[in-house]
Amino acid sequence: MEDNYRHKGLRQNLVKLLQQKGIKDNKVLSAILNIPRHFFLDKAFEEWAYKDVAFPIDNNQTISQPFTVARQTELLRIHKGDKILEIGTGSGFQACVLSYLGAKVYSIERQESLFQKTYALLRKIGYGNIRTLYGDGYKGSPRFAPFDKIIVTAGASELPKALMYQLRIGGLMVIPVGTTDDKKMLRIKRVSEDQFTQEKFGAFKFVPFLEGTKNKI
Length: 217
What we know:
By secondary structure, the protein is of the alpha/beta class.
C-alpha cells in the first residue's frame, strides 16, 4: 500500500482545515497527519480520503468525517495508556487514531463481514495491537471492563446504560445521542457508582446505533 508525497500533502491540507474548524489538540492533529486515511477506502475512491466528509464503506456504514473523528477524539482527553472501548469499528480509522495516541484499544463491530475485513486491514498496516471484537455494541464488553474511556461512533436514540456502567469511576464516554438525524455530541463522566454528569458539544450526523449482530451471509 503506497503513501506518497501527494497523499502526505493532502493530509497537511486536511490538518490545516481541521485547525480552522476549531481542532486544537496537537496530538490529535498529529494522528490525522500521520495515518494514511486512504488505506481505509477502496483504491477507486481514495481521492475522497482527504476531503472533510463522511464516505460510504461496506455494509451500509461510513468512514466518519475527519472533523468528527478529530472532535470525538479531542473530547475524550486521551492519555497514554488509557484503556478505551470503541463501539463501531467500521473501517478501523478511528481505532488507529486512538492507538496512535497511545491508548490500549478494544473495538467492537456488529457486522461480521466488516469485522473480518477490518481485522485483516489493521494487521496489514501495522495496527495489530488493536483488540477487535465481533459483538453487540449495546452490550459493550463486560469481559474487559472497566474502561477509562468509551467512544461510540454511531448515533444512539438514548444513552446505553450498559456502557455507562462499564466506565471506571472518573471515566469518560463520548457518544452522539438524539431522536433526529442531527445527534447531540455528549460527554458523559462517571463520578460515582451511580452518578454521571453530562456535557453537550454540538450536532453531528451518524449512522444509527443498532442492537444485536449481523452475521456474514
